[in-house]
Design goal:
Elements lengths: L12 H13 L4 H15 L8 H12 L20
Amino acid sequence: MARTASIGIRVEPSVKDALENAAKADRRTVAAYVEKLIVDDLEEKSFLPKEGPASDAKEAADKSVKPRPIVNLGHAGMKSRRHK
C-alpha cells in the first residue's frame, strides 16, 4: 500500500535530536521510526487493527526472508586444483 498522507509537526530541538538518535539506533529513518511509534501506539489502544496495513506489510516482509538449509558438499563438489 502506498503512503500518500503526510503529517508535519514541530518539536523542540532536543526532542528532534533524541528522535534522530533513537531512529539511528533502530536502523530506521526518522520518518519510518515515527510511523512505527504511531502505529504501535494506535494498535495498542485499538484505534488501528493489529491486522491492518502496517502489520500486513511487516508480516509479508517476515515471510519473504526464509533461511535456506545448509548443505555441506565437502570435497565432493569441488574440482581438484593440483598442479600438473
